[in-house]
Protein backbone atom coordinates (compact mmCIF):
# COMPACT_ATOMS: atom_id res chain seq x y z
CA UNK A 1 0.00 0.00 0.00
CA UNK A 2 1.08 3.58 -0.70
CA UNK A 3 2.90 5.37 2.15
CA UNK A 4 2.05 8.85 0.86
CA UNK A 5 -0.55 10.16 -1.53
CA UNK A 6 -1.66 13.55 -2.83
CA UNK A 7 -5.27 12.61 -2.15
CA UNK A 8 -7.15 9.70 -0.60
CA UNK A 9 -10.72 8.96 -1.57
CA UNK A 10 -12.77 7.01 0.94
CA UNK A 11 -15.42 4.93 -0.78
CA UNK A 12 -15.22 2.72 -3.88
CA UNK A 13 -18.67 3.50 -5.18
CA UNK A 14 -19.30 5.15 -8.52
CA UNK A 15 -18.66 8.63 -7.10
CA UNK A 16 -15.37 7.65 -5.48
CA UNK A 17 -13.95 6.18 -8.69
CA UNK A 18 -15.33 9.03 -10.80
CA UNK A 19 -13.55 11.55 -8.56
CA UNK A 20 -10.34 9.47 -8.72
CA UNK A 21 -10.44 9.28 -12.52
CA UNK A 22 -11.11 13.00 -12.88
CA UNK A 23 -8.27 13.92 -10.53
CA UNK A 24 -5.84 11.65 -12.38
CA UNK A 25 -6.99 12.92 -15.76
CA UNK A 26 -6.11 16.43 -14.56
CA UNK A 27 -2.64 15.33 -13.48
CA UNK A 28 -3.06 14.32 -9.82
CA UNK A 29 -2.08 10.67 -10.23
CA UNK A 30 -0.44 9.84 -6.88
CA UNK A 31 -3.80 9.11 -5.28
CA UNK A 32 -5.73 6.12 -3.99
CA UNK A 33 -9.26 4.93 -3.36
CA UNK A 34 -10.04 2.99 -0.17
CA UNK A 35 -13.00 0.62 -0.22
CA UNK A 36 -14.08 -1.49 2.74
CA UNK A 37 -15.70 -4.24 0.63
CA UNK A 38 -15.55 -4.41 -3.17
CA UNK A 39 -16.21 -1.76 -5.81
CA UNK A 40 -19.91 -0.80 -6.06
CA UNK A 41 -20.74 -2.96 -3.02
CA UNK A 42 -22.81 -0.21 -1.37
CA UNK A 43 -25.50 2.05 -2.79
CA UNK A 44 -24.02 2.05 -6.31
CA UNK A 45 -24.50 -1.64 -6.90
CA UNK A 46 -27.85 -1.69 -5.13
CA UNK A 47 -29.49 1.25 -6.87
CA UNK A 48 -32.34 1.25 -9.36
CA UNK A 49 -29.91 2.25 -12.13
CA UNK A 50 -32.11 5.02 -13.48
CA UNK A 51 -30.66 8.14 -15.03
CA UNK A 52 -32.84 11.21 -15.37
CA UNK A 53 -32.53 14.93 -15.86
CA UNK A 54 -36.14 15.68 -14.85
CA UNK A 55 -35.38 17.40 -11.55
CA UNK A 56 -37.09 20.24 -9.76
CA UNK A 57 -34.16 22.37 -8.61
CA UNK A 58 -31.70 24.13 -10.85
CA UNK A 59 -28.69 22.47 -9.23
CA UNK A 60 -29.91 18.88 -9.55
CA UNK A 61 -31.07 19.71 -13.09
CA UNK A 62 -27.72 21.11 -14.21
CA UNK A 63 -25.78 18.28 -12.56
CA UNK A 64 -27.92 15.60 -14.16
CA UNK A 65 -28.15 17.16 -17.63
CA UNK A 66 -24.37 17.41 -17.80
CA UNK A 67 -24.08 13.82 -16.55
CA UNK A 68 -26.51 12.48 -19.18
CA UNK A 69 -24.29 13.99 -21.88
CA UNK A 70 -21.28 12.31 -20.28
CA UNK A 71 -23.02 8.91 -20.07
CA UNK A 72 -23.76 9.23 -23.79
CA UNK A 73 -20.04 9.37 -24.59
CA UNK A 74 -18.64 7.39 -21.66
CA UNK A 75 -17.52 4.23 -23.49
CA UNK A 76 -15.29 6.41 -25.70
CA UNK A 77 -14.22 8.91 -23.03
CA UNK A 78 -13.05 6.13 -20.72
CA UNK A 79 -11.84 3.89 -23.57
CA UNK A 80 -13.91 1.12 -21.99
CA UNK A 81 -13.36 -2.44 -23.22
CA UNK A 82 -16.98 -3.31 -22.43
CA UNK A 83 -20.26 -1.34 -22.61
CA UNK A 84 -21.85 0.74 -19.85
CA UNK A 85 -25.28 -0.16 -21.33
CA UNK A 86 -26.72 3.34 -21.37
CA UNK A 87 -30.20 2.94 -22.77
CA UNK A 88 -32.20 6.14 -23.25
CA UNK A 89 -35.80 4.97 -23.12
CA UNK A 90 -37.04 8.08 -21.30
CA UNK A 91 -38.73 8.69 -17.96
CA UNK A 92 -42.48 9.09 -17.61
CA UNK A 93 -43.34 10.92 -14.38
CA UNK A 94 -46.95 10.69 -13.22
CA UNK A 95 -49.04 13.31 -11.39
CA UNK A 96 -52.09 12.35 -9.30
CA UNK A 97 -52.77 15.50 -7.29
CA UNK A 98 -53.33 19.13 -8.23
CA UNK A 99 -50.29 20.08 -6.17
CA UNK A 100 -48.19 17.46 -7.93
CA UNK A 101 -49.38 18.60 -11.35
CA UNK A 102 -48.65 22.26 -10.53
CA UNK A 103 -45.16 21.25 -9.40
CA UNK A 104 -44.63 19.36 -12.68
CA UNK A 105 -45.57 22.46 -14.67
CA UNK A 106 -43.00 24.50 -12.74
CA UNK A 107 -40.39 21.77 -13.17
CA UNK A 108 -40.96 21.56 -16.92
CA UNK A 109 -40.73 25.35 -17.28
CA UNK A 110 -37.39 25.29 -15.45
CA UNK A 111 -36.18 22.26 -17.41
CA UNK A 112 -37.13 23.79 -20.76
CA UNK A 113 -35.39 27.03 -19.82
CA UNK A 114 -32.23 24.92 -19.43
CA UNK A 115 -32.74 23.32 -22.83
CA UNK A 116 -34.04 19.93 -21.73
CA UNK A 117 -36.27 18.11 -24.19
CA UNK A 118 -39.29 17.46 -21.98
CA UNK A 119 -43.08 17.55 -22.44
CA UNK A 120 -46.23 17.78 -20.35
CA UNK A 121 -48.55 14.96 -21.39
CA UNK A 122 -52.26 14.30 -20.95
CA UNK A 123 -53.21 10.87 -19.58
CA UNK A 124 -54.08 9.77 -23.14
CA UNK A 125 -50.68 10.89 -24.38
CA UNK A 126 -49.01 9.10 -21.45
CA UNK A 127 -50.78 5.91 -22.52
CA UNK A 128 -49.28 6.28 -25.98
CA UNK A 129 -45.81 6.26 -24.39
CA UNK A 130 -46.62 3.29 -22.11
CA UNK A 131 -49.64 1.46 -23.60
CA UNK A 132 -50.14 -0.86 -20.61
CA UNK A 133 -50.32 2.06 -18.13
CA UNK A 134 -53.48 2.25 -16.03
CA UNK A 135 -54.49 5.92 -16.40
CA UNK A 136 -57.22 5.84 -13.72
CA UNK A 137 -56.95 8.92 -11.44
CA UNK A 138 -54.02 10.20 -13.51
CA UNK A 139 -54.00 13.99 -13.98
CA UNK A 140 -51.04 14.24 -16.30
CA UNK A 141 -47.44 13.27 -16.85
CA UNK A 142 -44.09 14.61 -17.96
CA UNK A 143 -41.84 12.79 -20.37
CA UNK A 144 -38.18 13.27 -21.22
CA UNK A 145 -36.93 10.90 -23.94
CA UNK A 146 -33.23 11.32 -23.15
CA UNK A 147 -33.56 9.96 -19.60
CA UNK A 148 -32.92 6.27 -19.21
CA UNK A 149 -31.12 3.39 -17.60
CA UNK A 150 -27.45 2.51 -17.23
CA UNK A 151 -25.46 -0.32 -15.66
CA UNK A 152 -23.93 0.94 -12.36
CA UNK A 153 -21.47 -1.97 -12.11
CA UNK A 154 -20.15 -1.32 -15.60
CA UNK A 155 -19.89 2.45 -15.05
CA UNK A 156 -17.94 1.87 -11.84
CA UNK A 157 -15.73 -0.66 -13.62
CA UNK A 158 -15.15 1.75 -16.52
CA UNK A 159 -14.06 4.59 -14.20
CA UNK A 160 -11.92 2.24 -12.08
CA UNK A 161 -10.11 0.81 -15.09
CA UNK A 162 -9.51 4.24 -16.60
CA UNK A 163 -8.28 5.56 -13.25
CA UNK A 164 -5.89 2.60 -12.81
CA UNK A 165 -4.45 3.16 -16.29
CA UNK A 166 -3.60 6.69 -15.16
CA UNK A 167 -1.80 5.34 -12.10
CA UNK A 168 -4.52 5.49 -9.43
CA UNK A 169 -4.30 2.74 -6.79
CA UNK A 170 -7.58 1.20 -5.67
CA UNK A 171 -7.50 -0.79 -2.44
CA UNK A 172 -10.55 -2.97 -1.83
CA UNK A 173 -11.16 -4.94 1.39
CA UNK A 174 -9.51 -2.04 3.15
CA UNK A 175 -11.26 -0.40 6.08
CA UNK A 176 -10.55 3.16 7.17
CA UNK A 177 -10.12 3.21 10.93
CA UNK A 178 -9.25 6.84 11.54
CA UNK A 179 -8.16 10.15 10.03
CA UNK A 180 -5.08 11.88 11.38
CA UNK A 181 -4.99 15.66 11.77
CA UNK A 182 -2.46 18.26 12.79
CA UNK A 183 -4.58 20.97 14.30
CA UNK A 184 -7.48 21.16 11.88
CA UNK A 185 -5.50 20.16 8.80
CA UNK A 186 -5.65 16.63 7.36
CA UNK A 187 -2.45 14.60 7.81
CA UNK A 188 -3.29 11.07 6.78
CA UNK A 189 -5.59 8.08 6.89
CA UNK A 190 -5.32 4.99 9.11
CA UNK A 191 -6.57 1.71 7.67
CA UNK A 192 -6.53 -1.92 8.74
CA UNK A 193 -3.74 -2.36 6.18
CA UNK A 194 -1.55 0.55 7.17
CA UNK A 195 -1.25 4.32 7.18
CA UNK A 196 -1.29 6.67 4.18
CA UNK A 197 0.01 10.19 4.63
CA UNK A 198 -2.05 12.71 2.63
CA UNK A 199 -3.11 16.35 2.74
CA UNK A 200 -6.47 15.67 1.05
CA UNK A 201 -9.28 13.26 2.01
CA UNK A 202 -12.51 12.91 0.08
CA UNK A 203 -15.48 11.48 1.93
CA UNK A 204 -17.37 9.49 -0.70
CA UNK A 205 -18.50 6.86 1.77
CA UNK A 206 -22.18 6.82 0.74
CA UNK A 207 -24.35 5.36 3.50
CA UNK A 208 -21.48 5.71 5.96
CA UNK A 209 -20.57 9.34 5.16
CA UNK A 210 -21.60 10.57 8.61
CA UNK A 211 -19.31 7.99 10.26
CA UNK A 212 -16.33 9.06 8.15
CA UNK A 213 -17.07 12.75 8.87
CA UNK A 214 -17.12 11.92 12.59
CA UNK A 215 -13.51 10.72 12.24
CA UNK A 216 -12.50 14.38 11.84
CA UNK A 217 -14.91 15.50 14.54
CA UNK A 218 -17.37 16.82 12.00
CA UNK A 219 -21.10 16.41 12.35
CA UNK A 220 -22.81 16.47 8.95
CA UNK A 221 -26.59 16.53 8.44
CA UNK A 222 -26.79 13.21 6.61
CA UNK A 223 -28.47 10.01 7.69
CA UNK A 224 -28.95 6.67 6.00
CA UNK A 225 -32.24 5.12 5.15
CA UNK A 226 -33.07 1.70 3.73
CA UNK A 227 -34.72 1.58 0.30
CA UNK A 228 -35.79 -1.69 -1.25
CA UNK A 229 -35.90 -3.00 -4.80
CA UNK A 230 -37.08 -6.13 -6.55
CA UNK A 231 -36.44 -7.58 -9.98
CA UNK A 232 -38.55 -9.94 -12.05
CA UNK A 233 -37.93 -12.67 -14.57
CA UNK A 234 -37.27 -11.31 -18.08
CA UNK A 235 -39.94 -10.98 -20.76
CA UNK A 236 -39.73 -9.56 -24.28
CA UNK A 237 -39.25 -5.74 -24.39
CA UNK A 238 -42.56 -3.92 -23.80
CA UNK A 239 -41.81 -0.79 -21.75
CA UNK A 240 -39.18 1.69 -22.87
CA UNK A 241 -39.38 4.43 -20.21
CA UNK A 242 -38.98 4.35 -16.49
CA UNK A 243 -42.43 4.93 -14.99
CA UNK A 244 -42.31 6.95 -11.80
CA UNK A 245 -45.00 8.20 -9.43
CA UNK A 246 -44.12 10.48 -6.54
CA UNK A 247 -47.67 10.10 -5.29
CA UNK A 248 -47.27 6.32 -4.95
CA UNK A 249 -43.60 6.78 -4.12
CA UNK A 250 -42.50 4.19 -6.67
CA UNK A 251 -40.62 3.62 -9.89
CA UNK A 252 -40.52 0.75 -12.37
CA UNK A 253 -38.44 0.14 -15.46
CA UNK A 254 -37.79 -2.74 -17.84
CA UNK A 255 -34.07 -3.35 -18.24
CA UNK A 256 -32.51 -4.15 -21.65
CA UNK A 257 -32.30 -7.78 -20.46
CA UNK A 258 -36.10 -7.84 -20.13
CA UNK A 259 -36.43 -7.94 -16.35
CA UNK A 260 -38.55 -5.33 -14.60
CA UNK A 261 -36.74 -3.52 -11.79
CA UNK A 262 -38.83 -1.54 -9.31
CA UNK A 263 -38.59 0.20 -5.98
CA UNK A 264 -40.70 1.92 -3.40
CA UNK A 265 -39.99 4.58 -0.81
CA UNK A 266 -41.36 3.87 2.68
CA UNK A 267 -42.11 7.10 4.58
CA UNK A 268 -42.07 5.19 7.88
CA UNK A 269 -38.52 3.87 7.36
CA UNK A 270 -36.32 4.83 10.32
CA UNK A 271 -32.79 6.18 9.87
CA UNK A 272 -30.25 3.39 10.18
CA UNK A 273 -28.05 0.86 8.46
CA UNK A 274 -30.57 -1.94 8.03
CA UNK A 275 -30.17 -3.57 4.60
CA UNK A 276 -32.47 -6.54 5.12
CA UNK A 277 -35.09 -7.31 2.49
CA UNK A 278 -38.63 -7.48 3.89
CA UNK A 279 -41.78 -9.33 2.87
CA UNK A 280 -43.78 -6.19 3.62
CA UNK A 281 -42.01 -4.44 0.76
CA UNK A 282 -42.71 -7.36 -1.57
CA UNK A 283 -46.43 -7.24 -0.81
CA UNK A 284 -46.81 -3.48 -1.04
CA UNK A 285 -44.74 -3.23 -4.20
CA UNK A 286 -46.69 -6.03 -5.87
CA UNK A 287 -50.02 -4.49 -4.94
CA UNK A 288 -49.14 -1.01 -6.18
CA UNK A 289 -47.37 -2.00 -9.38
CA UNK A 290 -50.03 -4.44 -10.57
CA UNK A 291 -52.58 -1.65 -10.18
CA UNK A 292 -50.44 0.82 -12.12
CA UNK A 293 -49.09 -1.60 -14.76
CA UNK A 294 -51.67 -4.42 -14.87
CA UNK A 295 -49.85 -6.91 -17.16
CA UNK A 296 -47.23 -7.27 -14.41
CA UNK A 297 -49.79 -9.46 -12.60
CA UNK A 298 -48.41 -12.31 -14.68
CA UNK A 299 -44.72 -11.85 -14.03
CA UNK A 300 -42.67 -13.52 -11.33
CA UNK A 301 -40.28 -11.87 -8.91
CA UNK A 302 -36.85 -13.49 -8.89
CA UNK A 303 -34.95 -11.41 -6.33
CA UNK A 304 -35.19 -8.50 -3.92
CA UNK A 305 -32.61 -6.51 -1.99
CA UNK A 306 -32.05 -3.26 -0.12
CA UNK A 307 -29.52 -0.47 -0.04
CA UNK A 308 -28.97 2.84 1.73
CA UNK A 309 -29.96 6.29 0.59
CA UNK A 310 -27.69 8.84 2.24
CA UNK A 311 -30.22 11.59 2.91
CA UNK A 312 -29.74 15.33 3.44
CA UNK A 313 -32.40 17.71 4.76
CA UNK A 314 -32.96 19.20 1.27
CA UNK A 315 -32.41 15.96 -0.69
CA UNK A 316 -29.52 17.56 -2.56
CA UNK A 317 -25.94 16.26 -2.25
CA UNK A 318 -23.23 17.89 -0.18
CA UNK A 319 -20.21 18.65 -2.36
CA UNK A 320 -16.89 20.36 -1.94
CA UNK A 321 -14.45 21.50 0.74
CA UNK A 322 -15.28 21.88 4.42
CA UNK A 323 -14.27 25.24 5.85
CA UNK A 324 -13.61 23.93 9.38
CA UNK A 325 -11.34 21.07 8.23
CA UNK A 326 -8.88 22.16 5.51
CA UNK A 327 -8.14 19.28 3.14
CA UNK A 328 -11.41 17.45 3.89
CA UNK A 329 -13.88 17.25 0.99
CA UNK A 330 -17.41 15.92 0.91
CA UNK A 331 -19.15 14.04 -1.90
CA UNK A 332 -22.06 12.52 -0.04
CA UNK A 333 -25.71 12.90 0.91
CA UNK A 334 -26.82 11.93 -2.59
CA UNK A 335 -30.34 11.20 -1.31
CA UNK A 336 -31.01 8.39 -3.76
CA UNK A 337 -29.60 9.91 -6.93
CA UNK A 338 -25.86 9.56 -6.58
CA UNK A 339 -25.39 7.17 -9.47
CA UNK A 340 -26.97 9.35 -12.14
CA UNK A 341 -24.91 12.45 -11.33
CA UNK A 342 -21.61 10.69 -10.63
CA UNK A 343 -19.99 11.79 -13.92
CA UNK A 344 -20.42 15.46 -13.02
CA UNK A 345 -19.61 14.96 -9.33
CA UNK A 346 -16.22 13.59 -10.39
CA UNK A 347 -15.49 16.61 -12.55
CA UNK A 348 -16.58 19.16 -9.94
CA UNK A 349 -14.74 17.57 -7.02
CA UNK A 350 -11.55 17.22 -9.07
CA UNK A 351 -11.73 20.84 -10.17
CA UNK A 352 -12.45 21.97 -6.62
CA UNK A 353 -9.58 19.95 -5.10
CA UNK A 354 -7.14 21.24 -7.75
CA UNK A 355 -8.20 24.82 -7.13
CA UNK A 356 -9.62 25.20 -10.63
CA UNK A 357 -12.80 27.03 -11.55
CA UNK A 358 -15.63 24.48 -11.39
CA UNK A 359 -17.88 24.02 -14.42
CA UNK A 360 -20.92 24.55 -12.21
CA UNK A 361 -20.52 26.65 -9.03
CA UNK A 362 -20.40 24.14 -6.18
CA UNK A 363 -20.36 26.56 -3.27
CA UNK A 364 -24.21 26.48 -3.15
CA UNK A 365 -23.95 22.69 -2.61
CA UNK A 366 -21.39 22.97 0.19
CA UNK A 367 -21.88 21.93 3.80
CA UNK A 368 -22.04 25.61 4.70
CA UNK A 369 -25.48 25.97 3.10
CA UNK A 370 -27.14 24.37 6.12
CA UNK A 371 -25.67 26.91 8.56
CA UNK A 372 -26.61 29.70 6.16
CA UNK A 373 -30.11 28.30 5.75
CA UNK A 374 -29.73 28.25 1.94
CA UNK A 375 -31.45 24.94 1.28
CA UNK A 376 -32.64 23.64 -2.10
CA UNK A 377 -35.84 21.67 -1.29
CA UNK A 378 -35.79 19.18 -4.14
CA UNK A 379 -39.44 18.18 -4.68
CA UNK A 380 -38.85 15.17 -6.95
CA UNK A 381 -37.45 12.21 -5.00
CA UNK A 382 -38.79 8.67 -4.49
CA UNK B 1 -45.02 -43.22 -21.25
CA UNK B 2 -47.08 -41.32 -18.71
CA UNK B 3 -45.82 -39.94 -15.40
CA UNK B 4 -48.14 -41.25 -12.73
CA UNK B 5 -46.04 -41.25 -9.59
CA UNK B 6 -44.03 -38.16 -8.73
CA UNK B 7 -41.52 -38.26 -5.87
CA UNK B 8 -42.54 -34.80 -4.64
CA UNK B 9 -45.74 -33.58 -6.22
CA UNK B 10 -49.08 -35.09 -5.43
CA UNK B 11 -51.79 -34.93 -8.07
CA UNK B 12 -55.09 -36.59 -8.72
CA UNK B 13 -55.63 -38.13 -12.12
CA UNK B 14 -58.98 -36.71 -13.16
CA UNK B 15 -61.17 -37.38 -16.19
CA UNK B 16 -59.73 -37.34 -19.70
CA UNK B 17 -59.81 -33.81 -21.21
CA UNK B 18 -58.63 -32.14 -24.39
CA UNK B 19 -56.24 -29.19 -24.69
CA UNK B 20 -54.14 -27.69 -27.45
CA UNK B 21 -50.38 -27.60 -27.93
CA UNK B 22 -49.32 -25.06 -30.59
CA UNK B 23 -52.78 -25.44 -32.14
CA UNK B 24 -52.67 -29.25 -32.17
CA UNK B 25 -55.42 -30.97 -30.16
CA UNK B 26 -54.14 -33.36 -27.50
CA UNK B 27 -55.61 -35.40 -24.67
CA UNK B 28 -54.55 -35.56 -21.05
CA UNK B 29 -55.97 -36.11 -17.59
CA UNK B 30 -57.32 -33.19 -15.65
CA UNK B 31 -55.15 -32.42 -12.62
CA UNK B 32 -51.91 -33.98 -13.88
CA UNK B 33 -49.03 -31.58 -14.60
CA UNK B 34 -49.27 -30.14 -18.11
CA UNK B 35 -45.77 -31.49 -18.72
CA UNK B 36 -46.95 -35.04 -17.92
CA UNK B 37 -49.67 -34.78 -20.57
CA UNK B 38 -47.19 -33.36 -23.11
CA UNK B 39 -44.68 -36.08 -22.32
CA UNK B 40 -47.28 -38.78 -22.76
CA UNK B 41 -48.15 -37.28 -26.15
CA UNK B 42 -44.50 -37.53 -27.22
CA UNK B 43 -43.71 -33.82 -26.93
CA UNK B 44 -40.05 -33.56 -25.89
CA UNK B 45 -39.11 -29.96 -26.71
CA UNK B 46 -40.74 -27.54 -24.26
CA UNK B 47 -38.68 -24.37 -24.69
CA UNK B 48 -35.50 -22.96 -26.21
CA UNK B 49 -32.48 -21.32 -24.61
CA UNK B 50 -32.48 -17.52 -24.95
CA UNK B 51 -29.13 -16.96 -26.57
CA UNK B 52 -28.33 -20.02 -28.69
CA UNK B 53 -31.96 -21.12 -29.15
CA UNK B 54 -31.13 -24.72 -28.23
CA UNK B 55 -34.07 -27.00 -27.42
CA UNK B 56 -34.89 -27.52 -23.73
CA UNK B 57 -36.85 -30.49 -22.43
CA UNK B 58 -38.43 -31.86 -19.28
CA UNK B 59 -35.68 -31.58 -16.66
CA UNK B 60 -36.12 -30.83 -12.94
CA UNK B 61 -39.87 -31.55 -12.88
CA UNK B 62 -40.32 -29.61 -9.65
CA UNK B 63 -40.65 -26.02 -10.86
CA UNK B 64 -37.09 -24.91 -10.24
CA UNK B 65 -35.04 -25.05 -13.44
CA UNK B 66 -36.89 -22.89 -16.03
CA UNK B 67 -36.46 -25.57 -18.68
CA UNK B 68 -40.21 -25.95 -19.21
CA UNK B 69 -41.36 -22.32 -19.40
CA UNK B 70 -44.28 -22.13 -21.83
CA UNK B 71 -47.10 -19.77 -22.62
CA UNK B 72 -50.39 -21.08 -21.22
CA UNK B 73 -53.67 -19.33 -22.01
CA UNK B 74 -51.64 -16.29 -23.06
CA UNK B 75 -49.58 -16.07 -19.84
CA UNK B 76 -45.82 -16.43 -20.49
CA UNK B 77 -43.24 -18.31 -18.44
CA UNK B 78 -45.63 -20.85 -16.92
CA UNK B 79 -43.73 -23.78 -15.41
CA UNK B 80 -45.71 -26.58 -17.02
CA UNK B 81 -44.08 -29.24 -14.82
CA UNK B 82 -46.00 -27.93 -11.81
CA UNK B 83 -49.08 -26.41 -13.45
CA UNK B 84 -52.13 -28.65 -13.41
CA UNK B 85 -53.93 -29.44 -16.65
CA UNK B 86 -57.47 -28.19 -17.15
CA UNK B 87 -59.87 -28.84 -20.01
CA UNK B 88 -59.44 -26.50 -22.99
CA UNK B 89 -56.04 -25.10 -22.01
CA UNK B 90 -54.07 -23.40 -24.76
CA UNK B 91 -50.41 -24.42 -24.36
CA UNK B 92 -47.87 -22.78 -26.66
CA UNK B 93 -44.14 -22.95 -27.24
CA UNK B 94 -42.82 -19.60 -26.15
CA UNK B 95 -41.16 -17.14 -28.48
CA UNK B 96 -38.04 -15.69 -26.85
CA UNK B 97 -38.52 -14.57 -23.27
CA UNK B 98 -42.30 -14.55 -23.56
CA UNK B 99 -44.68 -11.72 -24.35
CA UNK B 100 -46.58 -10.16 -21.45
CA UNK B 101 -50.01 -8.77 -22.30
Q: For this structure, what is the CATH homologous superfamily of the largest domain in chain A?
A: FAD/NAD(P)-binding domain
Average per-residue pLDDT of chain B, rounded, comes to 94
In total, how many domains does the architecture of chain A comprise?
Answer: 2
Biggest sheet features of chain B: 5 strands, mixed
Which second-level CATH architecture of the largest domain in chain A applies?
3-Layer(bba) Sandwich
Assembly type: heterodimer
Strand content of chain A: 15-25%
Q: Spans of chain A with pLDDT under 50 lasting ≥5 residues?
A: none
Stated plainly, the CATH topology of chain B is called Ubiquitin-like (UB roll)
Q: Which structural class best describes the helix and strand composition of chain A? A: alpha/beta
Total of helices of chain B: 1
The rounded distance between the terminal residues' Cα atoms of chain B is 35 Å
Count of alpha and pi helical runs of chain A = 11
Find the biggest chain interface: A-B, 11 and 11 residues
Amino acid sequence: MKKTADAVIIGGGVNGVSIAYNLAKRGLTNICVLERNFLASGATGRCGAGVRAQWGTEMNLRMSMASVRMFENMNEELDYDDDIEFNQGGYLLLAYTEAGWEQFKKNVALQKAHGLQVELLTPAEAKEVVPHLNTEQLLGATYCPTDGHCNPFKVTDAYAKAARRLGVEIYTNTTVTGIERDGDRIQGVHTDRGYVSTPVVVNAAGGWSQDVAAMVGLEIPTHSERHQILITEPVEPMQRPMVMSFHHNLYCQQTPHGSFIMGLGDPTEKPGYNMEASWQFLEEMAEKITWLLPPLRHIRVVRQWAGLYNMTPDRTPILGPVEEVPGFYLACGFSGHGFMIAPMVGVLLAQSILGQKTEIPIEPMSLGRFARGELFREPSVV
Amino acid sequence: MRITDHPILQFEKGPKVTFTFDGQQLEGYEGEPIAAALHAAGIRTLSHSHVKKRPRGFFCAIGACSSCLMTVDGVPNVRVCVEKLRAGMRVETQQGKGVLR
